[in-house]
Amino acid sequence: MQFSEDLAVDDFLRSRKTPFTLKDFTREMSRKGFSLTQREGEDYLAESPYVSWIEDGKFITRAAAFTGRFFSFTLTAEEFKNKMFVPGSRFMPFVDEMQNPASWKFFYDGRELPHRVGEFRKETALDLNVLYGEEYEVQYIAADPAMSEYDLADTDFELPSIVKITGCDLSRFIDGDGLRSGDRIVCRVLNWDKGEIEIFPQKRTRDQSGAIVQIGDADSERAAWGEAFEKALIKVLEREGPCATIEEQLAFAFYEDLETLCLFNCDSVENYLMHSKKIALELFGVETRLWYKGQDVPAVGTWNKGEMKKDPGDLGNLKFKIPEYILDNFLRDFEFRKQKDLTLLLKTMFPENFALTPDERRYVLLHIAGRHAIIARKYNYFADFPVGEIRNAALDLYSRVSSLVYDVESSSANFDKFPQNELVILSQLFAHINRILESIDSNPDAAVEDQATLDLSLEGMEYNFEDIEGALRGVIESEKRNNFTIV
């Protein structure tokens, strides 16, 4: 039932073309046979990457915001040489970033254009995917079907000097119409859910030497676009901060003024960043975000200061929780290591300083015993063996990271007393290790297939954790000393 419900929700949120309220959403789900409470509806909307809150209790889907909207980019020299263009990250945030760009369909004058595979220098490929951030751009490139024979894990996530990329064939425009490097491709999303995009190749005005001449209304409109985009983006940085991803930052920026920013003669995000003196791609922990040029992206700002305030004496505000998939991983690891005493599992699952009252301890043990009975009944050591070591390593890191998270949260220090970059990295590590364990729980076979990649990922996370632990614990210990009183 839950699987079908999730599909129905995704179908609505991937295809809705107009703004809607929570009541509209739950009513539509009810028509499809799924009765959602207000809380369940709120949870779906909060967790979905396909929808954003806009104003006055209204939401808008990516499909509603970006279907029919114009965006553009400049044809590079290597794309011209290969007689094609590469979508890369230049289509962000107008398309579904979860879809593989090689699966998108391109249309001109009502007819679908063929795909084409070209060879590009590694540096060019990275530039074409720069908005994914340094932490993801290599993975996006390697996910192209044209790179199917290349195994990133075998090369420590290093790309070869020449990579193959799938894109849209432009040979008819280059050979027949004289399209050249530096000319523009204007795009418009026809169907967001299906990844269908219409293109409009635009030749620029050139002088006798072939250099592009900046004249005419179109060039003026692109210059004005840069100013409008910068204002919108700065609003987002001040109000929303680093957001969850660069894609989300860009989506919010375009939401600010879709009519102005999605004109036919628009400029591109990449071109803006190339010339901007105010905004750049900056490190955010182990990730990348759009931020003020040359400045560190802080963990705490006006966008989350209210949420980060806490009363150190009120442990109820800390809400340290262990999701069911984490518990199930611990219980399967318990069986994998052939342990017998469930009470010892509490020491591994909960941070050392986490205090349970006798009643809470009894309740937790009863819950663990109940889940253990269900898992132990079906557990098969030999079937679990391939994933067992991976899970064990992930849980070991989880225990160390979650313990530090808890100690930071329960410290009497305000969050702004902690080194901000280390605080950001800790948050990212906690989210990442949770995603890995959730993936292992839901699809252990995939974890075994990706073992080399997971091993490298865990190794990198271990290195990052060791790099930040000392600085964060230094603040915790300092606060303890400052609060120590001799009676």
Keywords:
alpha+beta, 51% helix, 20 helices, 13 strands, three-stranded antiparallel sheet
Q: What does this protein look like?
A:
The chain is of the alpha+beta class. It has 20 helices and 13 strands. It has helices spanning 2-15, 22-31, 38-47, 62-66, 77-82, 122-128, 137-142, 171-177, 216-240, 246-256, 258-261, 269-275, 305-308, 324-336, 343-349, 358-378, 381-410, 420-442, 444-449, 451-482; strands at residues 20-21, 51-55, 58-61, 70-74, 84-85, 105-108, 111-113, 115-121, 162-169, 184-191, 196-202, 279-284, 287-292. The strands form 4 sheets. A 5-stranded mixed beta sheet has the order 4-10-11-6-7. The chain has a 3-stranded antiparallel beta sheet with strand order 1-3-2. The chain has a 3-stranded antiparallel beta sheet with strand order 5-9-8.
Compile the SSE list and pairings:
Elements: H1 2-15, E1 20-21, H2 22-31, H3 38-47, E2 51-55, E3 58-61, H4 62-66, E4 70-74, H5 77-82, E5 84-85, E6 105-108, E7 111-113, E8 115-121, H6 122-128, H7 137-142, E9 162-169, H8 171-177, E10 184-191, E11 196-202, H9 216-240, H10 246-256, H11 258-261, H12 269-275, E12 279-284, E13 287-292, H13 305-308, H14 324-336, H15 343-349, H16 358-378, H17 381-410, H18 420-442, H19 444-449, H20 451-482
Parallel strand pairs: 6-11
Antiparallel strand pairs: 1-3, 2-3, 4-10, 5-9, 6-7, 8-9, 10-11, 12-13
Helix pairs in contact: 2-3, 9-10, 14-16, 14-17, 14-18, 17-18, 17-20, 18-20
